[in-house]
């Protein structure tokens, strides 16, 4: 009888462990990874400590959203490389516009990403580039995306494993949900109509020099900013001196409210090419709970290209690559 009891106990332990494993994976898909409860939501944010215990799970795909040359030097184990040019529409005479639904579906199918996968995206500049991918996928109705808080910097500080080897998954047949979700999207026409609307906020998330017109980055046709814009550099929301994590809730809220950017306002966000402004969109909507925020996809590159549109600047311009 004793040996039978031992078998029963071992069986129960095995079942219990399996259930615990499934629960952990279920928590990943539900967005309960981050222990930080001070933000409005952590559904799309994950901490390094949580990813370390689950990164080899079969339903998690880790996306290294950096330039290919950086990826080849080192990256998280099992990571897949995607870069901005992979999710860009090249049919426009200027750069930066998000790719079509079909182009991203083809990209994800080629990389072996499936509809049921949980994507964890990271970069090495404070989640700026990662936020662009999150925003693009959000527009097409794909919600299973988390941003690694602090990215590669925080991962290294936690002694997370890195490799120069890369994995290739079998091709899939990825399809976005039929229903889009464009609630965070703004087009050129949307922003044109908002320039004369005093009840909304046009939020420029670039640097002081870009906003004033002192600096003209490569890709822009003119220097300056959209009339009636408020400037708040996106980088002020990130701890760049240490972990590159996004700052705490109270710090973020105080930062935006100091500029009159409050939750009751309708906000249109832009930058150079819709990347930095995607990060601000993420911070405002996901972490602070703002409800009326839209990211201008074409941003300054598109606006400056259209010579009939007004531009404000207050300094002599220097061209930069």
* CATH superfamily descriptor of the largest domain: Rhodanese-like domain
Indicate the low-confidence ranges by residue numbers. Answer: 1-37
Strand order of the largest sheet: 1-6-5-2-4
Portion of residues within helices: 25-40%
Structure description:
With 321 residues, the chain is an alpha/beta fold. The chain has two domains: 31-163, Oxidized Rhodanese, domain 1, CATH 3.40.250.10; 185-319, Rhodanese-like domain (Oxidized Rhodanese, domain 1), CATH 3.40.250. 34% of the residues lie in helices and 14% in strands. It is built from eleven helices and 14 strands. The protein has a five-stranded parallel beta sheet. The protein has a five-stranded parallel beta sheet with strand order 8-13-12-9-11. Strands 3-7 form a two-stranded antiparallel ribbon. Helix 5 crosses helix 10. The model is unreliable at 1-37 (pLDDT under 50).
Short description:
This protein is α/β, with parallel strands linked by helices and 321 residues long. It is built from eleven helices and 14 strands. Helix 5 crosses helix 10.
Keywords summarizing the entry:
321 residues; alpha/beta; Oxidized Rhodanese, domain 1; disordered N terminus
Task: Record the SSE blueprint.
Elements: H1 2-30, E1 45-46, H2 48-52, E2 60-64, H3 68-73, E3 75-76, E4 80-81, H4 101-111, E5 118-122, H5 128-139, E6 145-148, H6 151-157, E7 162-163, E8 185-186, H7 188-194, E9 200-204, H8 208-212, E10 215-216, E11 229-231, H9 249-257, E12 266-270, H10 276-287, E13 293-296, H11 299-305, E14 318-319
Parallel strand pairs: 1-6, 2-4, 2-5, 5-6, 8-13, 9-11, 9-12, 10-14, 12-13
Antiparallel strand pairs: 3-7
Helix pairs in contact: 5-10
């Amino acid at each position: 009888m004793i040996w039978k009891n031992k078998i029963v106990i071992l069986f129960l332990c095995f079942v219990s462990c399996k259930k615990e494993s499934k629960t952990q994976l279920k928590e990943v898909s539900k967005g309960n990874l981050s222990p930080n409860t001070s933000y409005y939501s952590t559904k799309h944010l994950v901490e390094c400590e949580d990813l370390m215990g689950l990164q080899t799970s079969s339903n998690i795909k880790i996306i290294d959203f950096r330039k290919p040359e950086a990826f080849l030097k080192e990256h998280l184990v099992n990571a897949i490389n995607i870069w901005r040019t992979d999710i860009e529409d090249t049919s426009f005479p200027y750069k930066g516009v998000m790719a079509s639904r079909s182009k991203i579906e083809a990209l994800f199918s080629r990389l072996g990403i499936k509809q049921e996968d949980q994507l964890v995206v990271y970069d090495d500049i404070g989640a700026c580039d990662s936020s662009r991918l999150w925003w693009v996928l959000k527009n097409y109705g794909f919600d299973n995306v988390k941003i690694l808080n602090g990215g590669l910097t925080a991962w290294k500080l936690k002694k997370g494993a890195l490799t120069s080897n890369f994995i290739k998954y079998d091709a899939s047949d990825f399809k976005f949900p039929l229903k889009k979700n464009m609630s965070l999207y703004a087009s050129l026409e949307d922003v044109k109509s908002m320039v004369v609307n005093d009840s909304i906020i046009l939020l420029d998330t670039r640097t002081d020099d870009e906003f004033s017109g002192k600096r003209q980055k490569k890709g822009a046709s003119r220097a300056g900013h959209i009339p009636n814009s408020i400037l708040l550099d996106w980088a002020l929301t990130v701890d760049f001196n240490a972990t590159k994590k996004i700052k705490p809730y109270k710090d973020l809220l105080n930062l935006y409210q100091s500029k009159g950017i409050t939750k009751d306002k309708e906000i249109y966000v832009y930058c150079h090419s819709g990347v930095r402004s995607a990060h601000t969109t993420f911070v405002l909507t996901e972490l602070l709970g703002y409800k009326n925020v839209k990211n201008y996809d074409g941003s300054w590159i598109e606006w400056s290209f259209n010579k009939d549109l007004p531009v404000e600047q207050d300094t002599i311009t220097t061209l930069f690559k």
